[in-house]
Specification:
Elements: H1 14-33, E1 37-38, E2 44-46, H2 47-54, H3 59-64, E3 67-69, E4 75-78, H4 83-92, E5 102-111, E6 123-132, H5 137-153, E7 159-165, H6 169-184, H7 192-200, H8 211-217, H9 229-244, E8 250-251, E9 263-271, E10 279-285, H10 289-292, E11 300-306, H11 307-316, E12 327-333, H12 336-351, E13 356-358, H13 365-374, E14 377-383, H14 385-390, E15 392-397, E16 403-407, H15 411-418
Parallel strand pairs: 1-5, 7-8, 12-13, 12-14
Antiparallel strand pairs: 2-4, 3-4, 5-6, 6-11, 7-9, 9-10, 10-11, 14-15, 15-16
The structure holds adenosine-5'-triphosphate (ATP) and magnesium ion.
Length: about 425
Amino acid sequence: MAIKAPRGTKDVLPSESGSWQYVEKLMRDMCELYNIKEIRTPTFEHTELVQRGIGETTDIVQKEMYTFLDRSGRSITLKPEGTSPAVRAFIEHNLYNEPLPGKLFYITPVFRYEKPQAGRLREHHQFGIEIFGSKEPSADAEVISLAMDLYRRLKVKNLEININSIGCSKCRAEYNKALKEYLKANMDELCETCKDRFDRNPLRILDCKMDKCKEIVKDAPVIIDYLCEECSDHFEGLKKHLDVLGYKYNINPMIVRGLDYYTKTVFEIISNDIGAQGTVCGGGRYDGLFEECDGPPLPAVGFGMGIERLLLTLQSQNIELPVKNKIDVFIAALGKDAEIKAFNIINDLRKNNISADKDHMQRSLKGQMKYSDKINARYTIILGDDELDKNKVNIKNMETGEQTEAELDKIIDAIKSII
Ligand code: ATP
Ligand code: MG
Protein backbone atom coordinates (compact mmCIF):
# COMPACT_ATOMS: atom_id res chain seq x y z
CA MET A 1 0.00 0.00 0.00
CA ALA A 2 1.27 3.46 -0.86
CA ILE A 3 2.60 5.45 2.07
CA LYS A 4 0.38 8.23 3.37
CA ALA A 5 1.25 11.44 5.23
CA PRO A 6 1.39 10.99 9.05
CA ARG A 7 -1.89 11.40 10.93
CA GLY A 8 -2.68 15.02 11.75
CA THR A 9 -0.46 16.50 9.02
CA LYS A 10 -1.67 18.16 5.86
CA ASP A 11 -0.14 18.68 2.45
CA VAL A 12 -0.64 22.11 0.94
CA LEU A 13 -1.40 21.27 -2.68
CA PRO A 14 -0.59 23.49 -5.68
CA SER A 15 -4.27 24.44 -5.90
CA GLU A 16 -4.12 25.73 -2.30
CA SER A 17 -0.64 27.21 -2.06
CA GLY A 18 -1.71 30.45 -3.76
CA SER A 19 -3.96 31.23 -0.77
CA TRP A 20 -1.14 30.46 1.65
CA GLN A 21 1.23 32.72 -0.23
CA TYR A 22 -1.37 35.47 -0.36
CA VAL A 23 -2.04 35.51 3.39
CA GLU A 24 1.64 35.11 4.26
CA LYS A 25 2.55 38.05 2.03
CA LEU A 26 -0.18 40.13 3.64
CA MET A 27 1.20 39.24 7.09
CA ARG A 28 4.71 40.28 6.05
CA ASP A 29 3.51 43.52 4.45
CA MET A 30 1.48 44.39 7.52
CA CYS A 31 4.39 43.78 9.85
CA GLU A 32 6.38 46.24 7.78
CA LEU A 33 3.60 48.80 8.33
CA TYR A 34 3.73 48.14 12.06
CA ASN A 35 7.55 48.26 12.22
CA ILE A 36 7.87 44.59 13.15
CA LYS A 37 10.86 42.53 11.95
CA GLU A 38 10.94 38.81 11.21
CA ILE A 39 12.72 36.28 13.42
CA ARG A 40 13.30 32.69 12.31
CA THR A 41 14.15 30.12 14.95
CA PRO A 42 15.00 26.41 14.57
CA THR A 43 12.33 23.76 14.12
CA PHE A 44 13.53 22.01 17.26
CA GLU A 45 14.77 23.21 20.64
CA HIS A 46 16.15 21.72 23.83
CA THR A 47 13.23 20.13 25.66
CA GLU A 48 14.13 22.09 28.76
CA LEU A 49 13.34 25.41 27.06
CA VAL A 50 9.89 24.23 26.09
CA GLN A 51 9.20 22.82 29.56
CA ARG A 52 10.33 25.96 31.32
CA GLY A 53 8.96 28.41 28.78
CA ILE A 54 5.51 26.94 28.39
CA GLY A 55 5.15 25.51 31.87
CA GLU A 56 4.94 22.06 33.43
CA THR A 57 1.21 22.25 34.11
CA THR A 58 0.06 23.06 30.58
CA ASP A 59 -1.66 20.72 28.12
CA ILE A 60 1.22 21.21 25.73
CA VAL A 61 3.92 20.02 28.12
CA GLN A 62 1.81 17.37 29.84
CA LYS A 63 0.31 15.75 26.75
CA GLU A 64 1.26 17.23 23.42
CA MET A 65 5.01 17.42 22.92
CA TYR A 66 6.93 15.71 20.15
CA THR A 67 10.00 14.85 22.21
CA PHE A 68 12.79 12.45 21.34
CA LEU A 69 16.43 11.73 22.12
CA ASP A 70 18.82 12.59 19.31
CA ARG A 71 21.77 10.36 18.41
CA SER A 72 23.84 11.90 21.21
CA GLY A 73 21.17 11.32 23.79
CA ARG A 74 20.04 14.94 24.10
CA SER A 75 16.34 15.54 24.65
CA ILE A 76 14.96 17.50 21.70
CA THR A 77 11.41 18.82 21.18
CA LEU A 78 9.82 19.96 17.93
CA LYS A 79 8.65 23.49 18.62
CA PRO A 80 5.07 23.50 19.91
CA GLU A 81 4.76 27.32 19.75
CA GLY A 82 6.80 30.29 18.62
CA THR A 83 7.16 32.45 21.71
CA SER A 84 9.68 30.62 23.89
CA PRO A 85 12.11 30.09 20.96
CA ALA A 86 11.83 33.81 20.13
CA VAL A 87 12.55 34.71 23.77
CA ARG A 88 15.49 32.28 23.85
CA ALA A 89 16.97 33.84 20.69
CA PHE A 90 16.39 37.39 21.97
CA ILE A 91 18.33 36.57 25.13
CA GLU A 92 21.03 34.49 23.41
CA HIS A 93 21.87 37.26 20.93
CA ASN A 94 21.59 40.11 23.48
CA LEU A 95 18.95 41.82 21.39
CA TYR A 96 17.74 43.57 24.56
CA ASN A 97 20.75 45.88 24.20
CA GLU A 98 19.15 47.45 21.12
CA PRO A 99 16.50 50.14 21.44
CA LEU A 100 13.35 48.64 22.95
CA PRO A 101 10.78 47.41 22.38
CA GLY A 102 11.97 44.54 20.22
CA LYS A 103 9.13 43.97 17.76
CA LEU A 104 9.27 40.56 16.10
CA PHE A 105 7.10 38.34 13.95
CA TYR A 106 7.35 34.75 12.78
CA ILE A 107 5.56 32.41 10.42
CA THR A 108 6.39 28.89 11.47
CA PRO A 109 5.20 25.29 11.59
CA VAL A 110 4.42 24.11 15.13
CA PHE A 111 4.00 20.53 16.38
CA ARG A 112 1.59 19.19 18.97
CA TYR A 113 0.54 15.60 19.57
CA GLU A 114 -3.19 16.25 19.56
CA LYS A 115 -6.28 14.28 18.61
CA PRO A 116 -6.66 15.31 14.96
CA GLN A 117 -10.03 16.82 14.02
CA ALA A 118 -11.36 19.76 12.02
CA GLY A 119 -9.14 22.73 12.86
CA ARG A 120 -6.82 20.65 15.04
CA LEU A 121 -3.68 19.21 13.50
CA ARG A 122 -0.42 17.67 14.75
CA GLU A 123 1.53 20.01 12.54
CA HIS A 124 -0.05 23.42 12.02
CA HIS A 125 1.31 26.83 11.16
CA GLN A 126 1.28 30.01 13.15
CA PHE A 127 1.76 33.64 12.39
CA GLY A 128 2.89 35.28 15.61
CA ILE A 129 4.07 38.64 16.79
CA GLU A 130 5.94 39.61 19.94
CA ILE A 131 6.65 42.97 21.54
CA PHE A 132 9.55 42.57 23.98
CA GLY A 133 10.44 45.20 26.56
CA SER A 134 7.26 47.25 26.93
CA LYS A 135 4.91 46.96 29.88
CA GLU A 136 2.52 49.56 28.48
CA PRO A 137 -1.06 48.57 27.65
CA SER A 138 -0.63 50.30 24.27
CA ALA A 139 1.60 47.35 23.30
CA ASP A 140 -1.15 44.88 24.24
CA ALA A 141 -3.66 46.88 22.22
CA GLU A 142 -1.26 47.08 19.27
CA VAL A 143 -0.97 43.30 18.94
CA ILE A 144 -4.75 42.90 19.11
CA SER A 145 -5.24 45.68 16.58
CA LEU A 146 -2.74 44.14 14.16
CA ALA A 147 -4.67 40.87 14.23
CA MET A 148 -7.96 42.70 13.65
CA ASP A 149 -6.42 44.82 10.88
CA LEU A 150 -5.33 41.62 9.13
CA TYR A 151 -8.84 40.14 9.36
CA ARG A 152 -10.31 43.41 8.10
CA ARG A 153 -8.04 43.38 5.05
CA LEU A 154 -9.11 39.81 4.35
CA LYS A 155 -12.77 40.85 4.79
CA VAL A 156 -13.39 38.27 7.53
CA LYS A 157 -16.66 38.87 9.36
CA ASN A 158 -18.26 37.73 12.62
CA LEU A 159 -15.19 37.81 14.81
CA GLU A 160 -15.36 38.29 18.53
CA ILE A 161 -12.55 39.74 20.62
CA ASN A 162 -12.51 38.25 24.12
CA ILE A 163 -10.22 39.81 26.68
CA ASN A 164 -9.42 39.10 30.29
CA SER A 165 -6.69 39.86 32.80
CA ILE A 166 -5.17 37.09 34.89
CA GLY A 167 -3.18 39.52 37.01
CA CYS A 168 0.34 39.19 38.35
CA SER A 169 1.80 36.84 40.98
CA LYS A 170 0.47 39.15 43.70
CA CYS A 171 -3.20 39.05 42.68
CA ARG A 172 -2.88 35.44 41.51
CA ALA A 173 -1.99 34.27 45.03
CA GLU A 174 -5.16 35.82 46.46
CA TYR A 175 -7.26 34.42 43.65
CA ASN A 176 -5.78 30.91 43.83
CA LYS A 177 -6.84 30.76 47.48
CA ALA A 178 -10.43 31.64 46.57
CA LEU A 179 -10.48 29.28 43.58
CA LYS A 180 -9.15 26.34 45.61
CA GLU A 181 -11.70 27.03 48.29
CA TYR A 182 -14.42 26.83 45.64
CA LEU A 183 -13.01 23.72 43.93
CA LYS A 184 -12.46 21.78 47.16
CA ALA A 185 -16.07 20.63 47.29
CA ASN A 186 -15.82 19.01 43.82
CA MET A 187 -12.24 17.86 44.03
CA ASP A 188 -13.14 14.17 43.48
CA GLU A 189 -14.92 14.89 40.23
CA LEU A 190 -12.05 16.74 38.56
CA CYS A 191 -10.08 14.87 35.88
CA GLU A 192 -6.72 13.39 36.93
CA THR A 193 -4.74 16.18 35.25
CA CYS A 194 -6.76 18.83 37.06
CA LYS A 195 -6.37 17.07 40.40
CA ASP A 196 -2.64 17.48 39.87
CA ARG A 197 -3.13 21.10 38.79
CA PHE A 198 -5.08 21.85 41.99
CA ASP A 199 -1.92 22.25 44.02
CA ARG A 200 0.54 23.19 41.29
CA ASN A 201 -1.44 25.74 39.26
CA PRO A 202 -5.19 25.83 39.95
CA LEU A 203 -5.80 28.58 37.36
CA ARG A 204 -5.11 26.02 34.63
CA ILE A 205 -8.21 24.08 35.69
CA LEU A 206 -10.28 26.87 34.10
CA ASP A 207 -8.71 25.96 30.73
CA CYS A 208 -9.44 22.22 30.93
CA LYS A 209 -11.21 20.81 27.87
CA MET A 210 -13.01 17.98 29.77
CA ASP A 211 -16.78 18.53 29.98
CA LYS A 212 -16.94 17.57 33.64
CA CYS A 213 -14.25 20.08 34.62
CA LYS A 214 -15.83 22.75 32.45
CA GLU A 215 -19.13 22.20 34.27
CA ILE A 216 -17.47 22.46 37.69
CA VAL A 217 -15.64 25.72 37.00
CA LYS A 218 -18.66 27.42 35.44
CA ASP A 219 -19.55 29.26 38.64
CA ALA A 220 -16.05 29.63 40.05
CA PRO A 221 -14.89 33.03 41.34
CA VAL A 222 -13.35 35.13 38.57
CA ILE A 223 -9.84 36.52 38.71
CA ILE A 224 -10.84 39.91 37.44
CA ASP A 225 -12.44 40.57 40.86
CA TYR A 226 -9.06 39.95 42.51
CA LEU A 227 -6.76 42.23 40.49
CA CYS A 228 -4.32 44.45 42.36
CA GLU A 229 -4.32 48.17 41.61
CA GLU A 230 -1.51 47.98 39.06
CA CYS A 231 -3.10 45.11 37.12
CA SER A 232 -6.49 46.72 37.26
CA ASP A 233 -5.09 50.03 35.91
CA HIS A 234 -3.33 48.10 33.18
CA PHE A 235 -6.56 46.41 32.13
CA GLU A 236 -8.33 49.78 32.06
CA GLY A 237 -5.49 51.09 29.89
CA LEU A 238 -5.92 48.23 27.43
CA LYS A 239 -9.65 48.89 27.17
CA LYS A 240 -9.05 52.59 26.54
CA HIS A 241 -6.62 51.86 23.71
CA LEU A 242 -9.05 49.41 22.12
CA ASP A 243 -11.93 51.88 22.54
CA VAL A 244 -10.07 54.65 20.76
CA LEU A 245 -9.68 52.40 17.70
CA GLY A 246 -13.36 51.52 17.86
CA TYR A 247 -12.91 47.80 18.59
CA LYS A 248 -15.75 46.04 20.35
CA TYR A 249 -14.72 43.33 22.82
CA ASN A 250 -16.18 41.04 25.45
CA ILE A 251 -14.66 40.69 28.85
CA ASN A 252 -14.55 36.94 29.30
CA PRO A 253 -13.32 35.85 32.74
CA MET A 254 -13.01 32.20 31.65
CA ILE A 255 -10.13 32.90 29.29
CA VAL A 256 -6.83 31.96 30.94
CA ARG A 257 -4.96 30.69 27.85
CA GLY A 258 -2.98 27.51 27.35
CA LEU A 259 0.46 28.58 28.54
CA ASP A 260 1.66 29.06 32.09
CA TYR A 261 3.67 32.17 31.42
CA TYR A 262 0.81 34.60 30.92
CA THR A 263 0.35 37.62 33.21
CA LYS A 264 -2.18 40.46 33.04
CA THR A 265 -3.74 40.56 29.55
CA VAL A 266 -5.00 37.40 27.88
CA PHE A 267 -7.17 37.44 24.79
CA GLU A 268 -8.72 35.24 22.13
CA ILE A 269 -10.24 36.16 18.81
CA ILE A 270 -13.00 33.72 17.97
CA SER A 271 -14.78 32.85 14.74
CA ASN A 272 -18.21 31.32 15.15
CA ASP A 273 -18.16 29.95 11.60
CA ILE A 274 -15.69 27.05 11.85
CA GLY A 275 -17.14 24.84 14.56
CA ALA A 276 -15.75 23.88 17.94
CA GLN A 277 -12.13 24.87 17.24
CA GLY A 278 -13.07 28.50 16.68
CA THR A 279 -10.14 30.32 18.27
CA VAL A 280 -8.36 31.88 15.31
CA CYS A 281 -5.93 33.92 17.38
CA GLY A 282 -4.79 33.78 20.99
CA GLY A 283 -2.31 35.77 22.94
CA GLY A 284 -1.51 37.96 25.86
CA ARG A 285 1.17 39.31 28.12
CA TYR A 286 3.91 37.22 29.74
CA ASP A 287 6.01 39.47 31.90
CA GLY A 288 7.67 36.58 33.75
CA LEU A 289 8.88 34.58 30.78
CA PHE A 290 12.23 36.29 30.21
CA GLU A 291 13.33 35.63 33.78
CA GLU A 292 12.01 32.08 33.55
CA CYS A 293 14.42 31.65 30.63
CA ASP A 294 17.33 33.16 32.62
CA GLY A 295 17.15 36.47 30.75
CA PRO A 296 16.77 40.06 31.95
CA PRO A 297 13.37 40.94 33.43
CA LEU A 298 11.72 42.14 30.23
CA PRO A 299 7.94 42.46 29.97
CA ALA A 300 6.45 41.00 26.78
CA VAL A 301 3.20 40.67 24.90
CA GLY A 302 2.22 38.83 21.72
CA PHE A 303 -0.14 36.50 19.89
CA GLY A 304 -0.16 33.28 17.90
CA MET A 305 -2.57 32.92 14.99
CA GLY A 306 -3.35 29.57 13.40
CA ILE A 307 -3.01 29.90 9.63
CA GLU A 308 -5.06 26.76 8.86
CA ARG A 309 -7.93 28.07 11.00
CA LEU A 310 -7.70 31.44 9.26
CA LEU A 311 -7.98 29.74 5.85
CA LEU A 312 -10.89 27.62 7.14
CA THR A 313 -12.65 30.79 8.24
CA LEU A 314 -12.13 32.40 4.82
CA GLN A 315 -13.51 29.27 3.19
CA SER A 316 -16.56 29.09 5.41
CA GLN A 317 -17.34 32.73 4.63
CA ASN A 318 -16.83 32.15 0.87
CA ILE A 319 -14.08 34.72 0.72
CA GLU A 320 -12.11 34.41 -2.52
CA LEU A 321 -8.56 35.66 -2.37
CA PRO A 322 -7.18 37.46 -5.43
CA VAL A 323 -4.77 34.65 -6.16
CA LYS A 324 -2.89 34.86 -9.47
CA ASN A 325 -3.66 31.79 -11.51
CA LYS A 326 -2.53 32.75 -15.01
CA ILE A 327 0.60 32.77 -17.08
CA ASP A 328 1.31 35.51 -19.61
CA VAL A 329 2.45 33.63 -22.71
CA PHE A 330 2.30 30.08 -24.02
CA ILE A 331 4.18 29.15 -27.18
CA ALA A 332 2.88 26.17 -29.13
CA ALA A 333 5.70 24.86 -31.32
CA LEU A 334 5.52 22.48 -34.27
CA GLY A 335 8.69 20.75 -35.45
CA LYS A 336 12.23 20.50 -34.08
CA ASP A 337 13.49 23.93 -35.21
CA ALA A 338 10.42 25.66 -33.85
CA GLU A 339 10.76 23.81 -30.54
CA ILE A 340 14.32 25.10 -30.07
CA LYS A 341 13.26 28.63 -31.03
CA ALA A 342 10.30 28.49 -28.63
CA PHE A 343 12.60 27.31 -25.84
CA ASN A 344 14.85 30.29 -26.51
CA ILE A 345 11.95 32.78 -26.61
CA ILE A 346 10.36 31.66 -23.33
CA ASN A 347 13.76 32.01 -21.72
CA ASP A 348 14.02 35.62 -22.98
CA LEU A 349 10.47 36.38 -21.85
CA ARG A 350 11.23 35.15 -18.34
CA LYS A 351 14.35 37.32 -18.27
CA ASN A 352 12.00 40.21 -18.97
CA ASN A 353 9.77 39.16 -16.07
CA ILE A 354 7.02 37.91 -18.36
CA SER A 355 5.78 34.49 -17.27
CA ALA A 356 5.95 31.99 -20.11
CA ASP A 357 5.81 28.30 -20.88
CA LYS A 358 5.88 25.76 -23.71
CA ASP A 359 5.05 22.10 -24.13
CA HIS A 360 7.37 19.46 -22.70
CA MET A 361 5.28 16.44 -23.66
CA GLN A 362 5.50 16.24 -27.46
CA ARG A 363 1.83 17.15 -27.75
CA SER A 364 0.12 17.73 -31.11
CA LEU A 365 -0.82 21.31 -31.98
CA LYS A 366 -4.37 20.62 -30.80
CA GLY A 367 -3.04 19.15 -27.56
CA GLN A 368 -0.81 22.17 -27.01
CA MET A 369 -3.73 24.55 -27.54
CA LYS A 370 -5.83 22.61 -25.02
CA TYR A 371 -2.98 22.71 -22.53
CA SER A 372 -2.55 26.44 -23.05
CA ASP A 373 -6.21 26.88 -22.19
CA LYS A 374 -5.89 24.69 -19.12
CA ILE A 375 -3.00 26.70 -17.66
CA ASN A 376 -4.86 29.97 -18.33
CA ALA A 377 -2.36 31.52 -20.71
CA ARG A 378 -3.27 35.13 -21.48
CA TYR A 379 -1.57 35.02 -24.89
CA THR A 380 -0.74 32.09 -27.14
CA ILE A 381 1.72 32.05 -30.04
CA ILE A 382 1.88 29.30 -32.65
CA LEU A 383 5.35 28.72 -34.04
CA GLY A 384 5.96 26.39 -37.02
CA ASP A 385 8.19 26.23 -40.12
CA ASP A 386 6.03 28.78 -41.91
CA GLU A 387 6.43 31.35 -39.11
CA LEU A 388 10.18 30.70 -39.00
CA ASP A 389 10.50 31.17 -42.79
CA LYS A 390 8.48 34.37 -42.93
CA ASN A 391 9.80 35.80 -39.63
CA LYS A 392 6.16 36.51 -38.67
CA VAL A 393 3.98 35.26 -35.80
CA ASN A 394 0.49 35.91 -34.48
CA ILE A 395 0.08 36.71 -30.80
CA LYS A 396 -3.40 35.60 -29.80
CA ASN A 397 -5.24 37.19 -26.89
CA MET A 398 -7.00 34.16 -25.42
CA GLU A 399 -9.71 36.18 -23.77
CA THR A 400 -10.84 38.28 -26.76
CA GLY A 401 -9.57 36.06 -29.57
CA GLU A 402 -7.88 39.13 -31.07
CA GLN A 403 -4.63 38.48 -33.00
CA THR A 404 -1.64 40.80 -33.29
CA GLU A 405 0.97 40.19 -35.95
CA ALA A 406 4.61 40.61 -34.97
CA GLU A 407 8.07 40.00 -36.39
CA LEU A 408 9.64 36.92 -34.87
CA ASP A 409 13.03 38.56 -34.26
CA LYS A 410 11.32 41.42 -32.39
CA ILE A 411 8.88 39.25 -30.49
CA ILE A 412 9.96 40.23 -26.98
CA ASP A 413 9.34 43.95 -27.68
CA ALA A 414 6.06 43.13 -29.39
CA ILE A 415 4.83 41.13 -26.39
CA LYS A 416 6.02 43.79 -23.96
CA SER A 417 4.04 46.42 -25.86
CA ILE A 418 0.73 44.55 -25.62
CA ILE A 419 0.95 42.98 -22.19
P1 ATP B 1 -6.76 25.47 21.74
O1 ATP B 1 -7.44 25.98 22.94
O2 ATP B 1 -7.61 25.49 20.51
O3 ATP B 1 -6.07 24.16 21.95
P2 ATP B 1 -4.28 26.76 22.22
O4 ATP B 1 -4.53 27.55 23.43
O5 ATP B 1 -3.57 25.47 22.34
O6 ATP B 1 -5.64 26.54 21.42
P3 ATP B 1 -2.31 28.56 21.18
O7 ATP B 1 -1.22 27.79 21.77
O8 ATP B 1 -2.63 29.87 21.72
O9 ATP B 1 -3.62 27.66 21.10
O10 ATP B 1 -2.09 28.70 19.60
C1 ATP B 1 -2.43 29.86 18.89
C2 ATP B 1 -3.37 29.55 17.75
O11 ATP B 1 -2.89 28.47 16.97
C3 ATP B 1 -4.74 29.09 18.16
O12 ATP B 1 -5.56 30.18 18.44
C4 ATP B 1 -5.22 28.37 16.92
O13 ATP B 1 -5.66 29.29 15.93
C5 ATP B 1 -3.96 27.72 16.43
N1 ATP B 1 -3.86 26.32 16.88
C6 ATP B 1 -3.49 25.85 18.10
N2 ATP B 1 -3.43 24.51 18.12
C7 ATP B 1 -3.76 24.11 16.86
C8 ATP B 1 -3.86 22.83 16.22
N3 ATP B 1 -3.60 21.70 16.88
N4 ATP B 1 -4.23 22.79 14.91
C9 ATP B 1 -4.48 23.92 14.21
N5 ATP B 1 -4.39 25.15 14.76
C10 ATP B 1 -4.05 25.25 16.06
MG1 MG C 1 -4.20 23.49 22.53
